[in-house]
């Protein structure tokens, strides 16, 4: 895979081009462009949970569904509670969360499947999207890793769930997507201590103390280390250079836009062979 895994496919989304071009799947992340939402959600807000008009969000989702040729009723969306829980889903869950909040898969921040024509989706505005793919075993997954999910080992939980399914870690590829960088993400001692703990106190740590009790955290690197610690070969883990905090012309940033903004959708799904 090239150094930067995400390439712009359309003003509305960036694609994991090498995965998509070499295999029968869809995978990528939306931008904030070419949608129907008004400020402060301008324009392509994909989240129903942020206060945007329901009809605008559905139009945005239908817009993406048309671009991807992947029906909205085949999407599966989880609740996202900033935790470490994941769940396997399949065709019987298609449509959950696609059009309404009350049908989301509850209490999980990660989804995976080995069934085609199921598109997994999760929402972001600084948290880390982690994409998982095993071409040999036809498994895909998506995880939502804020600092809480990161420190609850959601990345490792996904790898371990796949191991139980018979998918060895050395046959898994992972991509860490656009999210807030260490340039923009200040955290306190409690967060840095939690990161130390999930990394089993292995140095070097993915943060620097820039004033007493305040740390600049590289959440992408934290998750890369967790993936490697759980057995994915380092040359099968790819990390974007895009920072949602710096690049608010392309992406939404909860932190750098004062907490009132839209959400991108990260998505992955297998197509019928």
UniProtKB/TrEMBL annotation:
For this protein, what is any one GO molecular function term? S-methyl-5-thioadenosine phosphorylase activity
| Keywords noted in UniProt | Hydrolase, Metal-binding, Transferase, Zinc
Instruction: List the InterPro entries.
Output: Cu_polyphenol_OxRdtase, Cu_polyphenol_OxRdtase_sf, Cytotoxic_necrot_fac-like_cat
Coiled coil located at which positions? none
SUPFAM superfamilies in alphabetical order: CNF1/YfiH-like putative cysteine hydrolases
Cofactor(s) this protein cannot do without? Zn(2+)
Record's catalysed reaction(s): adenosine + phosphate = alpha-D-ribose 1-phosphate + adenine; inosine + phosphate = alpha-D-ribose 1-phosphate + hypoxanthine; adenosine + H2O + H(+) = inosine + NH4(+); S-methyl-5'-thioadenosine + phosphate = 5-(methylsulfanyl)-alpha-D-ribose 1-phosphate + adenine
Q: Which family does it belong to?
A: Belongs to the purine nucleoside phosphorylase YfiH/LACC1 family.
What NCBIfam families would the database entry show?
peptidoglycan editing factor PgeF
Query: What's the protein name?
Result: Purine nucleoside phosphorylase
Which organism does this sequence originate in? Exobacillus caeni
- Name of the coding gene: pgeF
């Amino acid at each position: 895979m090239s150094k930067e895994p995400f390439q712009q496919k359309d003003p509305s989304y960036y694609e994991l081009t090498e995965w998509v071009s070499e295999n029968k799947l869809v995978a990528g992340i939306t931008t904030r462009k070419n949608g129907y939402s008004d400020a402060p959600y301008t324009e392509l807000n994909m989240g129903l949970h942020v206060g945007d008009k329901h009809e605008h969000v559905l139009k945005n989702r239908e817009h993406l569904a048309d671009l991807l040729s992947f029906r909205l009723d085949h999407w599966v969306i989880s609740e996202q509670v900033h935790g470490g829980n994941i769940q396997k889903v399949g065709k019987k869950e298609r449509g959950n969360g696609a059009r309404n909040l009350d049908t989301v898969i509850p209490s999980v921040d990660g989804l995976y499947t080995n069934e085609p024509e199921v598109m997994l989706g999760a929402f972001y505005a600084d948290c880390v999207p982690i994409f998982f793919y095993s071409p040999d075993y036809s498994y895909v997954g998506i995880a939502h890793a804020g600092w809480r999910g990161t420190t609850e080992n959601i990345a490792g939980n996904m790898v371990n769930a796949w191991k139980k399914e018979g998918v060895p870690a050395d046959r898994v590829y992972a991509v860490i997507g656009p999210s807030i960088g260490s340039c923009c993400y200040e955290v306190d001692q409690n967060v840095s201590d939690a990161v130390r703990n999930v990394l089993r106190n292995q140095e070097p740590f993915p943060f620097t103390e820039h004033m007493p009790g305040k740390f600049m955290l590289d959440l992408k690197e934290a998750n890369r280390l967790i993936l490697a610690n759980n057995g994915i070969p380092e040359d099968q883990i790819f990390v974007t250079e895009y920072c949602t905090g710096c690049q608010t012309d392309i992406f939404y940033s909860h932190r750098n836009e004062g907490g009132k903004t839209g959400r991108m959708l990260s998505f992955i799904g297998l197509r019928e062979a």
